[in-house]
Amino acid sequence: MLLSQILYNPAINWVITLVILFYGPVLVVYLIFKLIGFQGYMSLFRFIEGKSIIYRMDPRTKILLSIIVTTVAAITIWWISAIMFVAVMALYALLSNIKEKLRVALPLILASFIGTAWTESIFAPYSYLQVIFHHVTFLYVFPQSLAVLGITQGSGTFYVPYLGYVSNPVGLTWEGIIYGLQITFRAVAAIASGLLLIFSTPPSDILRSLEKSGLPIELGFTLLLAVSSVPKVLENSMVVLNSLRARGVEFRPRSRNPIRLIAESLFIIRVIVMALVSIVILTLRDARQIAIAADIRAFRAYRRRTYYRDIRLGRIDYIAIALLIVLLIAGIYISGLPGMGAVPYNP
Amino acid sequence: MRSLVLFGEYMVWNGVHFNLNTIIPWYVILIWSVLYFALLAWAWRPKEGRPFGNFKTIDFVYIALIAALLIVYNFFISPLIPKVGTVTTYFYYPIIGETFLVMLAAALVGKPGSAGLTVFIYTLLSDIIHYGFGGEPFWFIYEVTSYAAIIDLWLIYRGKYYMLPFRGVFKGVASSKEPSGESVASEELEEELKSAKALFIVDALLGGITISMAYPFWWRGFWGPFVLGISFTPSLWAITSIASIGAGAVLGLVVAPFIYYIKRVLT
Amino acid sequence: MYLLAGIYRPSNGSIQIFNHDSTKLSGKDRVKLIGYVFQDPDQMLFSSTVRGELEFTLKLASVHGREAEDRIRRIVNYLGISDLLSQSPHKLSVGQRRLVSVAAILVAEPRILILDEPTRGLDNEMSTALMDLILTIKEEKGMTLIMVTHNMRQVGEYSDKAFVMYDGTVAFSGIPEEVFEESHKHPEWGISPPQVFEVTRSIGRPTASIRRVRVNAA
Question: Does domain C16-148 have CATH number 3.40.50.150?
Answer without folding.
Answer: no
